[in-house]
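Support case: NAI complex. Customer-provided input:
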Amino acid sequence: MNVQEHDLVVIGAGPGGYVAAIRAAQLGFNVGCIEEAPALGGTCLRVGCIPSKALLESSERFAEAREHLASQGILFSDLKLDLAAMLRRKDQVVATLTKGVEALFRKNKITRYQGRATLLGPGRVHVQDGKAGAEVRGRKILIATGSQPATLPGITPDGDRIGTSTEALSYPTVPKHLVVIGAGYIGLELGSVWRRLGAKVTVLEFLDRILAGMDHEIAAEAKKLFEKQGLEFRLGCKVTGARAKDGQCVVETEGQPPIQCDRVLVAVGRKPNTEGLGLENLGIKLDAKGFIPVNPAFATTAEGVYAIGDVIGGPMLAHKAEEEGVACVEALAGRRAHVDYDTIAGVVYTHPEIASVGKTEQQLSEAGREYRKGVFPFRANGRARTLGQVEGMAKVLADAKTDRILGVHILGPHAGDLINEAAVAMAFGASSEDLARACHVHPTLGEALREAALAVSGRAVHV
Ligand code: NAI
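Agent response - structure generated as follows:
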């Protein structure tokens, strides 16, 4: 059997794995990357971040045309939805980006193996490509296999009526009534898409609030806005089962009447992809939650085997996996590298967007940390007025004694882009005063963030 040898073998070509592979190649490693799917890019590019953002963008344009443009004097008749064209555009965006990763692999001379990887023993990986299979050897091995949608007891997704985010990115027709289970990132983003395109959408959430990990004030404000957009919420609602028959579904919940609908989206979190990886052949044991335990250098308990991204736990975010991938291979190349987990932001791409970095008010209170808070509403921001998007606020939380920024939370237009400024400021250990003193261009949305920083010491100008 033909055995290929590499300095580094990366298993998984999602944002964690493919970025690690490229960085390692830049550092002079001979890299092989094993990916089961025909296209590179992982969940994020193929069935996650990118297609969902393409649909969020298109559906928002449709809703804007239907509901908001008349107020700007733009009138037209006969607005129609061509869902097939919208889905095709989404697929084209995905195809362009996954091909882009292929080109980057060629440019960096990364050897790509298509097939399912199983660890055989130290430095040895079997690739099953549907035919004979092959062995690939690596001095070092990096596991970046990501995660897949979790489901609930009593629900078996059927890949059609009862599905996960993957199906919800490609419904061939707009559902009449979509029931979304879980008011987290996926439930709110994809629930918003189909609501804008005309579906009745009911979101069932086990907890008594949406967006569990987010700042409570921001999440509560967001919920009001989503309700105005027509999303219906049932909080404190435990789903116990769902079944489909003849194109109709029934969702059962504890203590409430069953709900009839025509599609169910299960969005109750994700679970790490570890099954069939052959971890037992290297003595790697999973932790209590099913993740691969690693040390701060991303080393597993097996010599020469490393792991990053969703499969090791922490926030299941593409950019977190990328950071870890880069830090891991830079350390392998003898460089100093670390991931600053305090400055990894999260964004929910609803309308408006919700973005967050650092600690929430609740986390600070629980930790007994004294903080000062500055809030600025977008309705007082000139640029937001010109955009016609005045809902939401920016919030800066700073240490009561040192003034160091501890958290920034934004609900508002382009919050996902604005949060990067906060993350950079925090990475440099900025105080709210630093952010407040930096000249911000007028008129921009960023001025709202600056005003929130000014508001920490009661100096906001426009409120
Ligand atoms: P999530 O963890 O964000 O939300 C799941 C929700 O389901 C929670 O609020 C939970 O309380 C609820 N839930 C659990 N069991 C339930 C039950 N029996 N009945 C009703 N509700 C129940 O998970 P989600 O939305 O599936 O996303 C998965 C991962 O993907 C997240 O970790 C997220 O970080 C990532 N993601 C990130 C995106 C982004 O960065 N914009 C977009 C989409 C996903």
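Residues 152, 181-187, 189, 204-207, 212, 237-239, 267-270, 315-317, 346-349 surround NAI (CB under 6 Å).

Case will auto-close in a few days if no follow-up is received.
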